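new request in #modeling-help
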Amino acid sequence: MEIEWISASKTEGLRVTGEVVVHLEHPERLSVVSVEPVHVEGTALVHDDTMAVDATIKATVVYRCVRCLTSFSENLETELHERFKRVPLSDEEEENEFIFTMGTAIYLDPYVGQELVLSLRQNPVCKEDCKGLCTVCGADLNNGECGCDRHPIDPRLEVLVQVLDNMESDSTGD
Ligand SMILES: [Zn+2]
Ligand SMILES: [Zn+2]
């Protein structure tokens, strides 16, 4: 999605609307299967050498549950507020988070992508009480109990169990 300086320089600003393709760098690390479509709607307004872009980002995100690995989709909505400048920035302006851009238009997609990534869920779960997968057989425990013994064994206890096993086999040898 591109916004031309000239078309946004009208006094009432420019209505910005369209779809953006977001490429996530490590979707699997974020437990994200897909992010699409990403819809952007807002305004761009030029004042001297500054362009203010204010928009709402709406997307359908398909996550992979971190507990049971099932895919589920969710609607995401967030805001984009960026201030661009087409002349080199002073230190103060950099602190005020202006973005220096060159050319006759602003390519908005990377900023939309950034904002979207910040709004993604951390450790997404399909439902609050998702039971996850059985650590022994891999069954989805949301579909019912598989009957496996999943009591965690303390590694120190495991040694003891082995010692006892050995003693037992020794004594049966007599
Ligand atoms: Zn789940
Ligand atoms: Zn199991």
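bot summary: Strands lie at 2-4, 14-20, 32-47, 50-64, 71-85, 98-100, 105-107.
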